[in-house]
Amino acid sequence: MSTATEKQFDQGLVNTIAAETQMSFIDGEKGVLEYVGIDIDSLARHSTFEESTFLLWNGRLPDAAELAGFETELRAEYALPEGLIAMIRETPADASTMHVVQTLVSALSLFDPECDDDSPEANIRKAVRLVAKTPTLIAAFDRHRKGKEIIPADSNRSIASNFLWMLRGEEPTETMVRALDVCLVLHADHGFNASTFTSLVVISTLSDLYSACSAAVGALRGPLHGGANEGVMVMLNEIGDLDKVDEFMKGKLERKEKIMGFGHRVYKAYDPRATYLKTFSEGLARDTGNLPLYEMSTRIEGIMHDAVASKGIFPNVDFYSATTYWSLGLELDLFTPMFALSRMSGWTGHCIEYLKDNKLIRPGAAYVGPHEVPYVDLADR
Ligand code: SDX
What we know:
By secondary structure, the chain is an all-alpha fold. 55% of the residues lie in helices and 3% in strands.
């Protein structure tokens, strides 16, 4: 058995490649992201969340019939089991939304007879259920916590349109649907980020897809990962005004505090997802009377560019998704659930891909504690 010295110590696994994948490619130096070789900017402009999910899971774009068939499969699975709706009705209205998502994603397993069938066919069916039902459970909880009637999913709608419908019971505008769909495309997959890697650790033990994805939700909740988009909005609300940005940022930088929505473990250039989101958020902010948020954001970006661009710190996907989600009228604590809703596509896809050549994930640890310590009876301590 190899000893610790033969293994590489790599805190945070910064320099470790854990497996191969054909789903997403990231060039951190050049700021490139591709889903199965297709540039993220093209997908954001021309694709949909459903089409991008098909691409990630199947390694190619669908033809018209395949896309229609996949959308039908997803829509057939939008509805929640009655037992899950009963659980939502018993959930405290002030519960943390990401704890609710994690709990309900796990609870979906209680109503799925295929939960422990880890055949590729059953896993794809479970992946469809997870991607299809996560928007429904998020919207259902939001309605419940506001004391409103839960709105059933409408299987005549896309995932983006259905989510906005279930949230408000009003016909969403095409602009709103498009904006959300772009966000879902941009957030669908991103290599072995912390939450995706979490799902792989779980699936590598041959546990089930629900366990893997609910664990991933737990990882995404953290402010260093998916929780950053909420942190960006908290920061913008705290600043409050364009003319207060400079003072606020001066203090943060002097105290060496991290600015949410900036920096990335892989990107040392502009996050390509932020590029498109930035232009998109400007139009949406203008249309919804939130332009001051966009103006504060660009001012913050300029200050950060002067201060830390030389260290490879640029806006990441979370920075402008905050203004986009706020302009969509989403509450702050729904921002990270939006990220989970979209990344369910990447989590399930990576789990199914990893199982094709599974290897239990179990890294070494460099023990730095004492040795040969005698046991002392309780009476003698
Ligand atoms: C996502 O991995 C993925 O792919 C994630 C993601 C995905 O799609 O799944 O892209 C989504 O999680 C995006 C990142 C969202 N998180 C944030 O916006 C939180 C703020 N960012 C940082 O906490 C940080 O940039 C990380 C955690 C994202 C990455 O940090 P690393 O790689 O662990 O690097 P580090 O924390 O050691 O920082 C290196 C240097 C430090 O300065 P020095 O001590 O060397 O002087 O850069 C500085 C840091 O202080 N730095 C920042 C900063 N991020 C890093 N300084 C100010 N503001 C920041 N945001």
